[in-house]
Amino acid sequence: MKKSIILLLATLMLSVSGYLRAQSTGTPNSSNTLKIGITVNSNGTVSLSQSTGGPFSTTSGVQPYDAVFEDTISMDLEFIQFQLVANSSRFRCYFRTDVFEAMTGALHSEIYLQDTTDSNVSKRYDVVLTKLSKEATLDAIIPSSGTLVPEFEPNTLFYALKVGYSTDALSFNAVPTYGASTVGVIRRPPSLAVGLNNIDINVTSQDGIATNYRTYNIAVLRQSNDTTLKSLTLNDGDIPLKFDSATFSYEVTVPFSINSITVDAETSYESAEITAGTGKYQLSVGNNTLSVAVTAEDTVTGFTGTYSVTVRRKSDDATLNSLTLNGGNIPLEFDSATFSYEVTVPYSIDSITVDAEPSYESAEITAGRGKYPLSVGDTLITLTVTAEDTVFTKKTYTLAVRRMSNDATLDSLTLNPGDIQFGFHPNTLSYTVFVPSSVESITIGATAHHSSANVTAGTGEHSLILGDNPFQIKVTAEDTVFIKTYTVTVKRSSSDATLKSLTLNNGAIPFRFHPNIPDYRVEVEDEVSDIVIACEANHPEATVSGAGPHHLDYGDNVFPVTVTAEDRIANEETTPYVYTITVHRISNDATLHHLAISPAELIPPFDPDITQYTASVPYEVPSVMMDFELTNSYAELWTADELEQPGIKHLNVGENVFGIGVFSETKEYYRAYWVRITREAARTGFHEAGEPAAVHVYTVNGWLHVDSPAAERINIYSVTGTLLYGFDKPAGASTSPFTVYPSPVLIVKGSSGWTGKLVVND
Q1: Whose CA is closest to 761, among 719, 707, 698, 679?
Q2: Less crowded by CB within 10 Å, the N or C end of the chain?
Q3: Is the peptide bond before 150 cis (omega within 30 degrees of 0)?
Q4: 199 to each of 189, 206, 473, how far by Cα in Å?
């Protein structure tokens, strides 16, 4: 440095112009150089001026200087150049350098002035230039919470900062590199939202030039405390689950066939993490509890949530754990793997209570438990066990309960073997059987009604004595408690079924009786109205039915007299079994039981004792139907019409007389009945419109009467023209049943060309 000063002084003294310049390194130009004019006044003072502004401010009397000049310069300047202007030849001026770099901060440049007339007189001036800083960096950014990433560097402008959910606001301590710089937060939200929040810190340089600033950006991530799930699926969704993010507990039932399950889930907040619970699980039968753990993004605070899914895998177990009968008092060696059982109970047990429990508690016994009435023999009880997985498994246990029979009856009881009939019935325990004396032995055969009952006594061949031969047949029931005894008394006896005597009215009515003649016929007079039959069997042990008093009707009265031999066996070749007596009571009745004519009525009404009757019909009735019946079928009918039978009687106009004569059965009595029927004369000049005078049509008591000359087809029409009825009639008068009455007035047409109106009068 001293070397540089000496060189500078030597240069000034040798200069023609009175001063010398030495230039520092650098390349000054008008745009980056501050030019300072130094004027040496005649009185030995110095004044400075800026090319870009007014004069410097001056401070005098500051030791060790004679004067101090102060000013500030822009940060944009790189060089400072001094220019000397000598207004006095007496003083010479020199300085360290006329051009030097403008460094940041306070820059001192010393100017020396020396009097040329007196070398001992000199002055020194200090030029203080304060260069404003253009530095816009920070030395540190210190957040109130969290740590910047990456670590702070002044020239690194972008940072990330992570804070927990509980931090909802931040402050920053920003330390500028140059203290005079201005620092401000130009963007900061009033509160931190969950997620990304951008905060900008702006640094402005000391020189205040608009381009000299720098912005630091901090991306603040406020971590979420969301521990919910957006979705939760089982087996890719094929197992239904009504998921709700606010519901944390679920129950799902799956069939037995699903032995594993895959749990998949997605968090509601993308930065949350499922830390446990997803993936594939093997399922046991019954409840399987799966927990899906969600850790929130905010690991600082440590928020976690758990969703619980209980997957119930249905069981295929359809076995029984126990099977008891009547509360266990009926022994049963039960094994869950044995599905068929047989139990025998005595007859005294008429019902059974079946109880059972499934091996797996959720299996269901769908049939079989309960109380059952027991019939004698086998009762089949079926227990159906349906596994919890009803589709997968069903098992059936069968229980055959045999209730022993108390049946000690016989199904059959035969003698010799079975050719002797005695009306066996299982519930009849005592029998008497008659056999003729020719039967010296008998074989008894018996079969129990129940297959498990036993005939223990009484069967086989037995010799017979005359008279009663009692035999006892014993039957023991299946349960051995009940025993029945059938008694068969075989009577070796007579087979005589004849009568010794047979009389009527104590012999008052004579007829020839013979024991071997079975049929008899007797006639009695009209006054005999009752008869008494008396008889006696040839054998005292034979029985007789049919004897006694009997009422006699007119005609034949048949009375059977039955004789049953002692042995109840009828020898049809030699012995009559039934005697038949026919008593004919002769009648003197010569009356009619019934007499009627149609369509007219008899006057007076018929009475068998009245023989004279009259009746009248209009002209339109050409004939009547006469009906009568005899009181006694053995009487004989005679009529005035040469025994003409009941039927249609043609009527002439005027009186028509019909006589009916009746002879009694004995021909001793006769009675004549007379019927006089008057047919009225034709109505003179009266005919319905279109009805020919020779045609008459009318109805009486359901009969249609038509009297027309020709044989023709008769048709009946309604007044609207609908055909109702038709028939073919011969020439003259004819009748036909007629029940079609849709209205009281009908139209009648004959195929011979006539038309008439029919007024129905019945």
Answers
A1: 698
A2: N
A3: yes
A4: 7, 23, 121
Q: Are 715 and 748 in contact (CB under 8 A)?
A: yes
A 10 A CB-CB count for 29 gives 10
Query: 288 and 306 in contact (C-beta within 8 Å)?
Result: no
Report the alpha-carbon distance of residue 621 to residue 618 in Å, rounded.
6
Long-range CB pairs of 425-432 (<8 Å, 24+ gap) are: 429/484, 429/485, 429/486, 429/487, 430/486, 430/487, 430/489, 431/486, 431/487, 431/488, 431/489, 432/489, 432/491
pTM, two decimal places: 0.42
Quote the pLDDT of residue 6. Answer: 29
User: Is 20's pLDDT higher than 50?
Assistant: no
- Pull the structure tokens for residue 232: 């939760």
The tens digit of pLDDT for each residue in 348-388 reads 899 999 999 999 888 999 888 999 999 988 999 999 999 98
Q: Which amino acid is at 435?
A: V
For residue 365, give the H/E element and its range: strand 364-367
Nearest CA-CA partner of 228 in 191, 265, 176: 265
pLDDT at residue 683 tops 80:
no
Residue whose entry in the numeric block shows the structure tokens 């008093």: 549
DSSP 7: H
In the predicted model, what is the mean pLDDT of residues 729-748?
82
Whole-number Å distance between alpha carbons of 522 and 511: 7
DSSP per residue over 425-477, as a string?
-TT--EEEEEE-TT--EEEEEEEESSTT-EEEES-EEEE--SEEEEEEEEEE-
Query: Given its phi and psi angles, is residue 748 left (phi above 0), alpha (psi -120 to 50 degrees) or beta?
Result: beta
Q: If you average pLDDT over residues 116-128, what whole number do you get? A: 76
pLDDT digits (tens, 9 = 90+) for 168-214: 888 888 888 877 677 776 667 778 888 899 999 888 877 766 667 78
Mean pLDDT of the chain: 83
Find the Cα–Cα–Cα–Cα dihedral 602, 603, 608, 610, rounded to 10°. Answer: -140
**CA-to-CA distance for 365 and 14, rounded, in angstroms?**
133
